[in-house]
């Protein structure tokens, strides 16, 4: 999915692309909020958009429900609190095979799709603020 997202960004002419890796989908909201709240300067730029990529695959316990739901809620809260679009590229699947199909397999690349969404939202929010 990362390769798909980077491909979409490069094709669109995006510059200053930063990749930040976190241990899992549960950690995405905190990382996104930290990035969104950056001050311009030595630590980097305030992003036009954030693309959150990950996968939560259902197992035999209710862990899936907690992680998937809270990751989604947390990422939504980040964009509402900061005004920076956060594209939701977190796969929520029942099997590893379904995840592979959506991460560049027969069902496309949801990373690419999330990047296109981020680009479109960044442009729309920019226009709305003018």
Task: Give keywords.
130 residues; two-stranded antiparallel sheet
Report what the structure shows.
The chain is of the alpha+beta class and 130 residues long. It has a single domain, classed as Rossmann fold, CATH 3.40.50. The chain is 52% helix and 16% strand. It is built from five helices and four strands. The strands form two sheets. A two-stranded parallel sheet has the order 1-2. A hairpin with a 2-residue loop joins strand 3 and strand 4. The longest helix is centred in the middle third of the chain and has 20 residues. The radius of gyration is 15 Å and the shape is globular. The N and C termini lie far apart (33 Å).
Shape: globular
Work out the count of structural domains: 1
Quote the CATH topology.
Rossmann fold
| SS-derived structural category | alpha+beta
Q: If strands are numbered along the chain, what order do they take across the biggest sheet? A: 1-2
H/E series, N to C?
A: HHEHEHEEH
CATH superfamily: Lumazine/riboflavin synthase
- Radius of gyration of CA atoms, rounded to a whole number: 15 Å
The major pleated sheet works out as: 2 strands, parallel
- Any idea what the CATH architecture is? 3-Layer(aba) Sandwich
**Number of helical elements:** 5
What is the CATH C-level name? Alpha Beta
């Amino acid at each position: 999915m990362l390769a798909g997202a980077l491909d979409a960004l490069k094709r669109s002419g995006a510059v200053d692309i930063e990749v930040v890796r976190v241990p899992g989908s549960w950690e995405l909201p905190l990382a996104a909020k930290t990035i969104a709240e950056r001050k311009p300067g030595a630590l980097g730029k305030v992003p036009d958009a954030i693309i959150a990529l990950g996968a939560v695959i259902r197992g035999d316990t209710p862990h899936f429900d907690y992680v998937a739901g809270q990751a989604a809620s947390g990422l939504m809260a980040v964009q509402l609190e900061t005004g920076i679009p956060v594209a939701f590229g977190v796969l929520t699947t029942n099997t590893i095979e379904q995840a592979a199909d959506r991460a560049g397999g027969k069902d496309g690349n949801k990373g690419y799709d999330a990047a296109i969404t981020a680009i479109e939202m960044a442009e729309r929010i920019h226009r709305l603020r003018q």
